[in-house]
Structures are given as structure tokens and as C-alpha cells.
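Example record used in the benchmark description.
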Amino acid sequence: MKENQKYAEVLSRTVGLHTSPVGVQFVETSTAQIAERDYRFCQAVMQARKGHNITVTKDHITCPAAAAAMGFKPLPPNLQDGSMLCGYGIFKEKSAGMHVMNTMPRLELGRYTAVEIKPLDAFDSCPDVVIIEDEPEKLMWIALAYLNENGGRLEFSTSILQAVCVDSAVLPFLTQKINMSFGCYGCRDATDAQTNEALLGFPGSKLPVVTANLEYLQNQAIPRSRAKNVYQAFVNRKA
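Model output (C-alpha cells):
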């Protein structure tokens, strides 16, 4: 079994993921087959969760905000000034929308020509980022497995916009740290994301430690917490 197949199997088995963990690779010069159709970045991740291999470029990405996040194209003026966000009813004031877009993390313009988005087990080498979309309780255990390396506290960043492309892919790549997101207007409108699902992204280099710690948590903490014995004792005790 290839390493990434092993990692994907551990991630899925220990917490019970509904779909595949997704790997993301930012490519300076790509020789991969380009997508036969255009995608939003979040739609490419949605397809990868279901087993598809997608490569997007500046000519095959339909979301202008994601195209800017990947460094494929400059941000359009109507997004830059917040007017599009007001038009969608996301922000009341253009100034708030503009501030969000001005502080949005992005990759360097023109640095990468493509992004490969595939199920984790389809990668022969370590991807730049791993994205998992599922119920928050399952993401909680993965975040705890990540935290098991050094302890401390985790800090997450989101603007409730660009939850897949920025929060779950670009930020973990740039910071080399885990990040979690509630989702956003765009990904919930454009994909089959469920109301009870959230997102998590972490650097692919952390796969060995995350999966090893998930195996440790599965030995006791995960099944014990899910059994809800303390809750059952509470509801069953005499008043």
C-alpha cells in the first residue's frame, strides 16, 4: 500500500469520514491533463471527494475570487471594492466587503500555473495540503490529532468567504498550519456541502503525525467519547 493510501485509510477509518480526504498540489509547471470542463475551486474539491482527479488552471476556473486566491488572475474591481458582495446581500456596506477582500490571503500572482486536486490516495507524493469536509465532530478529532504533536492552542482564521479555496487550501499552504472553516456563501451555493458539514485543511507534511495520533485517539478517546456514558449516566440517574 502506498503511503498516501495508508494515510487516507487511517483518516477515513478512525473518524468515519463520509467521503475521501482530498489532496491539493500547487504546481508551477503542470504536465497533468487539464479538466475537460470548467470548475469553481470548491466544485473541484467536491468532485475529488467523490474520487475524481481534477487539474484547474487560469483558463479552467470559473470563480474570480478563487482565481485571485490561486494567483491565476487579478481580483476584479467589483470584488475589490466590495460592490459584488453587497449585490449578493452578503455585506450591507461596501467598505466592510472591501476590507474583507483587501485582507484576503492569496498566492503570488503568476507563481503557479495549475492546481491539482485529487483524492489523497491518488497522489504518489505528499500533496501541499489535505482538505477534509465532514461533520464538525470528525474534524474535531483530526484537529486534536494535529494538536497532539506539540499541545498548546489552535487558532483558526476565516472571513466566512472563500472557505474552501482560501481557508482550507491557501492559508494552510502559506502558514504551514492547520485551519478550520464554517464554510461560506459561495461553497454552500455551488456545491453539495451539507448544512451539518464544515471544513479543515492542514499541510500534507503533517500527515504522518496526524494519522499516527488518530490511531492513538482511536484506541480509547474516540470510542469512549462517542459512547456518551457520562451523558447516559446523567439522564438515567434519579432526580
